[in-house]
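Let us practice reading a record.
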Amino acid sequence: MMDTTQVTEILREGIWVAIKVCGPMLLLSMLVGVLLAIFQAVTQIHEQTLSFLFKVVVIAAVLLIGGGWMMETLLDYARSLFALMLQN
């Protein structure tokens, strides 16, 4: 039987895994968005697809570069959850 501290630790670890996996994509897409907003304000080019296209390219690049690490992180967390289920 699991107690509240064990459940809290599992949830805390799950949130940390989500932050580690999603953080790089979110931070880089926000950075690209800010840089493109500054560029568009300076040049007075207000095209919405320009920002969207660059963000998609950055997210795809992050997935290509760090996708293996992201998958391993998620698999490690899932394995630890299944190991806990087998113990109880």
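A brief commentary: The chain has a mean pLDDT of 92.
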